[in-house]
Amino acid sequence: MASTASNQLEQVLGALRGSEVLKAFSPDACRALAMAGSPINLSAGGILCQAGDPGDSVFVILDGEIEVRAASPGGRDVRLVALGRGAVVGEMAALDGGARSADMVATRRSRLWRIPRAALLERLEAEPKAAVALLAELSARLRKTNAALESRATLDLGGRLAQLVLAEQNTGGIVALTQSELARRLGASREKVNRKLHEWAGEGLVVLTPSGVRLQAPERLLGVVANQANS
């Protein structure tokens, strides 16, 4: 039993040291944060927190992936960002003590470590270097969010879909996401995504396979994005 607890603590410390935010903390601070925390296990689709919940803690992702979502005006869930192992989520609400601004959902089986807000603030006050690192990470995320919002304003569905499949393709050129998932990430309907993919298939840009969308002409898809961005 003691060995299991020790192994879990080492996993938490490893995640803290690998975090872009929390790695700036001293070893003693990391251990203090780990000791103040507690584990959370989520299955795929499990809700970590919802918009409006109190920002009383931050979460370190030990394994898995957490997706931050917001509802579109049409009622669809729109993916804002997905964060994986070693990332910290929920820190904005924890810093100001306000309510959560978005839903956070596990996209697959995930293990997290919950750190109370009071423990985080105590360590940030004691170690200004870590506070600066946290601000830098928040700024980087804000830039990514702004870029996503800009692309939504300047690109039509085809441009945004091209941008998404280019980013999500694996080394074999396959995008292993369902059309429903592609649509959800874009805040569009599955029917419109399906129509555009079939249009591209007819033009030889992609091939629709049982394992996903295979990109046949990625350079032409890049051209779709570039032409709209420059128009």
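(ticket continues) Second input and output from the same batch:
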Amino acid sequence: MDRRLFLSLAAGTAATAFQKTPVGIGFLGATHSHADGKLAAVRSAADLRLIGICESDPKEQEKLRREGILLFSRDELLKHPEIQVIAVESPVRSHASDGLAVLEASKHLHLEKAPADSMAGFQKVVSAARSKGLLLQVGYM
């Protein structure tokens, strides 16, 4: 094998290694004031693929349907095999419990701010992410 062939094979292998498959993302809730902006950012990102949303508010569900977004039950979203990360965009009072549910489902978590309605709730989320080796990102504009 000459140097030119070696370099071309190495470059081709490296290029293949860096090809990205979009990360599957779901939303748990869509009523937080930052949800629309977060959803727009996800939909425009080439490295993310929106799988669907779990939202209980009927008016919000209808809006999401009109936008062509798939709706899931909470259980379906948490167990969906193509979803690797879930963005929690529910009301703040639900952030800690929703975040814990995401982590218990072994999904990475983007948790909208405020991440909990108490420091104790947030500490539980951080502890769960650490113990499971999962990523926790707190939303910040």
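Agent notes: The CA atoms of residues 28 and 125 lie 15 Å apart. The two ends are 53 Å apart (CA to CA). Closing as not reproducible unless the customer responds.
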